[in-house]
Amino acid sequence: TQLLEQSPQFLSIQEGENLTVYCNSSSVFSSLQWYRQEPGEGPVLLVTVVTGGEVKKLKRLTFQFGDARKDSSLHITAAQPGDTGLYLCAGLTGANNLFFGTGTRLTVIP
Amino acid sequence: DAGVIQSPRHEVTEMGQEVTLRCKPISGHNSLFWYRQTMMRGLELLIYFNNNVPIDDSGMPEDRFSAKMPNASFSTLKIQPSEPRDSAVYFCASSYRFTEAFFGQGTRLTVV
Predict the structure, then answer these.
(1) Mind telling me how many Å the CA of A79 is from chain B's nearest CA?
(2) Is some CB atom of chain A closer than 8 A to the CB atom of B105?
(3) From residue A19, how far is each of A57, A78, A110, B23, B42 by CA, in Å?
(4) Does the distance separating the beta carbons of A97 and B91 come in below 8 Å?
(5) How far is B15 from chain A (nearest CA, A)?
(6) What confidence category does residue B100 fall into, taking pLDDT thresholds of 50, 70 and 90?
(7) Cα–Cα distance measured from residue A81 to residue A13, given in angstroms and rounded to the nearest whole number
(8) B106–A contact, CB cutoff 8 A
(9) Considering only CA atoms, which of B27, B22, B37, B111 is closest in space to residue B68?
(10) Contacts of B61 in chain A (CB under 8 A)
(11) CB A88 within 8 A of CB A41
(12) A·B CB contacts under 8 A
């Protein structure tokens, strides 16, 4: 099993604040995906990063893949209550296994 | 396409009984994953299939768990006999060439 540790595990912030979620591993991945999961639903893909050092932006969300392709971060600017959910990173190995991180549960308070 | 379809949505069973979870992947997808999600352990990969062939089942907890994919449009995950510690939400996901994984809504299993 490829271990992806996410931090923090829980995060509660006020609307309008900025935050960063981290995803770390000792393993190298061919790509790194970020998902968001709502209660009672399955995870839904937000973005995929493939190249070491790659940065992708999705409105107020900025995703970065580490240079060594072992870690990633998700930065949210001016968080909104609609951003509330469970954020999961997932690493795709060379053997095409898709392993998920431990998750960060975000609550944005209006 | 209706997306990945799992059934049942909820299952309550007694310890020792056999449980079968079902999944219909998105048409045209060639990879299928089974995951188990709990608060303690997060989302764990149990097994994945590529072109209907099991590629890696190292995540299957023990011999009580088995999974099959008889064709490209159907897969099952069976637990026999079930135990209370198997209680979790079980997700099936499919993808095309390991790009985006599309998840079903999950089966919430409770073993009493």
Answers:
(1) 24
(2) yes
(3) 15, 8, 15, 36, 22
(4) no
(5) 24
(6) confident
(7) 10
(8) yes
(9) B22
(10) none
(11) no
(12) 58
Q: What is the DSSP letter of B86?
A: G
Instruction: Judge: B42–A102 Cβ closer than 8 Å, yes or no.
Output: yes
- Report the residue from A42, A96, A97 with minimal CB separation from B103: A42
pLDDT in tens, chain A (110 residues): 558 999 999 999 999 999 999 999 999 999 999 999 998 899 999 999 999 999 999 999 999 999 999 999 999 999 999 999 999 999 998 878 889 998 999 999 99
Q: Which chain B residues are Cβ-neighbours of A45 within 8 angstroms?
A: 100-101
Share of chain B residues as helix, strand and coil, in percent rounded to the nearest 5 = 5, 55, 40
Q: Please, which residues have CB within 8 angstroms of residue B40's CB and are 6 or more apart in sequence? A: none
The CA distance from A11 to B10, in Å, is 29
Contacts of B60 (CB under 8 A, 6+ apart): B46, B47, B66, B67
As a residue count, chain A comes to: 110
Q: What is the pLDDT of residues B62-91, one digit of tens each?
A: 899 999 999 999 999 999 999 999 999 999
